[in-house]
């Protein structure tokens, strides 16, 4: 199982949206959740993937082709 497969569907969705350039507030509005919920999912994804922060998470997502065109 790849590291990305260990993420929950919501964590995957948030990683993808971050890679597409959306902010935490924009993601929260799009998913109809609080910005704290988005931040929590983002932090869990960072930890599960062994990354150091949002910049690493965004680079990972782009490198893995997770951003939609």
Description:
This protein is an all-alpha fold and 69 residues long. The chain has a single domain, classed as Arc Repressor Mutant, subunit A (Orthogonal Bundle), CATH 1.10.10.10. Helices cover 64% and strands 0% of the residues. The longest helix has 15 residues, at 35-49. The mean pLDDT is 92.
- How do the SSEs run, as a string of H and E? HHHH
Corresponding CATH superfamily: Winged helix-like DNA-binding domain superfamily/Winged helix DNA-binding domain
| Radius of gyration over C-alpha positions, nearest whole angstrom | 11 Å
Number of continuous helical runs: 4
Distance between the first and last residues' Cα = 26 Å
Supply the number of structural domains: 1
Biggest pleated sheet: none
Work out the number of β strands. Answer: 0
Sheet-strand content, in percent, reads under 5%
> Based on the structure given, which CATH architecture is correct?
Orthogonal Bundle
> Overall pLDDT, averaged?
92
Uncertain stretches of 5 or more adjacent residues: none
- How much helicity do the residues have? 55-70%
Structural class: mainly alpha
State the oligomer. single chain
What is the C-level CATH assignment?
Mainly Alpha
CATH topology: Arc Repressor Mutant, subunit A
Q: Could you say which overall geometry the principal axes of the C-alpha atoms support? A: globular
């Amino acid at each position: 199982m790849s590291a990305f497969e260990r993420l929950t569907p919501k964590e995957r969705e948030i990683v993808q949206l971050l890679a597409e350039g959306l902010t935490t507030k924009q993601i929260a509005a799009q998913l109809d959740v609080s910005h704290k919920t988005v931040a929590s999912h983002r932090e869990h994804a960072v930890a599960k993937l062994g990354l150091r922060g949002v910049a690493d998470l965004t680079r990972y997502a782009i490198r893995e082709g997770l951003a939609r065109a």
